[in-house]
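From the methods appendix. Each design record in this collection lists the tokenized structure first, followed by the designed amino acid sequence. Records were kept in a plain field format so they could be parsed without special tools. The example shown here is representative of the layout used throughout.

RECORD:
FOLD TOKENS (75 positions):
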């Protein structure tokens, strides 16, 4: 999960990712940030994030993102 936090901090280091639970709902990540995040996750974790995975539930917190990555890695 440290690598995920590194990716997020590279995108915007002003956000407290470890405590934030509404990254998407509170518009803390803009569309460019989300596109960058998806690209970095796919590259670093060797997964493919389909459009169906791009929901607020999967992107609102670092825990949700990590759970999605782990699930995609298993498939």
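DESIGN:
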């Amino acid at each position: 999960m440290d690598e995920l936090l590194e990716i997020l901090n590279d995108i915007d280091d002003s956000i407290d990712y470890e405590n934030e639970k509404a990254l998407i709902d509170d518009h803390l990540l803009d569309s460019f940030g989300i596109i960058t995040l998806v690209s970095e996750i796919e590259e670093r974790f060797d997964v493919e994030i389909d459009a169906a995975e791009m929901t607020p539930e999967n992107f609102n917190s670092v825990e949700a993102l990590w759970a999605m990555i782990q699930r995609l890695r298993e498939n």
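APPENDIX NOTE: Residues 31-45 form the longest helix (15 residues).
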